[in-house]
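User: Can you fold this complex?
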Amino acid sequence: MVAVPLNIFLLQEAIDELEWSAQDERTIHLKKVLRAKDGEKVDFGVINGPRGKGLLEWRSRGAVKISFDWDAPHVSDLLPLCLFVGLSRPQTCRKIIEQAASLGVAEIIFFQADKGEPSYGESSLWHKEWRHLLIKGAQQAFSCHLPRCLKVDGFEQARAVSGVNPKFSLALDIYEADACISTIKQRKDEPIHLAIGPERGWSAKERECMRGYGFMLCHMGPRVLRVETALVAAVGAISSAYWSGKGWAMR
Amino acid sequence: MVAVPLNIFLLQEAIDELEWSAQDERTIHLKKVLRAKDGEKVDFGVINGPRGKGLLEWRSRGAVKISFDWDAPHVSDLLPLCLFVGLSRPQTCRKIIEQAASLGVAEIIFFQADKGEPSYGESSLWHKEWRHLLIKGAQQAFSCHLPRCLKVDGFEQARAVSGVNPKFSLALDIYEADACISTIKQRKDEPIHLAIGPERGWSAKERECMRGYGFMLCHMGPRVLRVETALVAAVGAISSAYWSGKGWAMR
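Assistant: Here's the predicted assembly.
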């Protein structure tokens, strides 16, 4: 398997320098995948902080010393979008966390949906791995900004803990949708709550609760999509409307 | 690992009946995952043909006999969208084929891009597996319609073999994009060519060639996405505009 070069290394804090041993997987990545030379500068970032460059100095026995030069902190590039995701199988949630972190949503709040399996919340994913997946997704995206990621008991709680104050509240629902997601959403750059069901969909009670909170049920066409595919496609529809609304252009 | 229930079984031809042995993985799926009883009717379809119901009759020793009742052939639900995808790592192409088949694009044409690895085209994926992944994606989507999928030598050839006659030709390009995909695309239900580069992006020659053919270079925001994530997000942006343009509503 060919390793994909890391776009940026993210650190916890803006330190001045560090040393990684020859056995550290990041040292191995610098050497084997990036083939970084002595004196080379590599992209680094601080989680929810600045980007910068790391100047490499290869030491004896394969260790590497890195000295940092940090830029001014840059503005968050996260979308004002909170995803409420019905807890799905752990392998599905893994793909969701990494891809949603790459796409740069502000929040991912998993909740126990009525038609989900309670055991899904007990996976080892929810110990430390979820955090590594967030970092992996942001590193892929060449961004320092990580979504806030939480796991809560039910939809009401998910909605209560969100820090996104929405202008639109949407729920994907292929069975009872009122309209297509892009008819409802239009091309505005306003904060959104987007709820996505677990594999077996919403219960009648959840639909009633969501409608009570003003959620519009919307579809993405007639095809039945896996949770992770529907999520990435919906975020694509929302984010492209967002970036065109911002008039964001390339450097 | 919990198996996901199949939404529809696709067959090659509209036969009247068949028998599957107890060892057949489809029989096992009917029994273990769908828990289908004797006399039950299950969703079946014919590839690029009609949907229908299969009446199950459990035989001695665990085999199953199925008698079919086919509907009239239904109109294709494929998007008039042809994807030109720079050949990427086989595990990436697997995800692309299955997800693009679920999302229902009309064509997926892989080509050897200048910055791709020639060895990617020699993977076992390109013997029979690609076809199984197309079927798997369509079955997930509860559709009988499979994208046309081809692998060719280069971008010019990919363009020449496409059966989609485009109104828009777009190429994802985070480095030299003119505008956001949804600014260019607007919400129209017209045929599209969409080119997506390999992991290391386009060469200057490919960009020149695409511009010569009237392709607009577009972005999906500032974040660097994996090929498969960018592809699903872009198809999401295009398909949601398509379905809202068609005024397609739920049953």
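The longest helix of chain A spans residues 227-245. Chain A touches chain B through 53 residues (CB under 8 Å).
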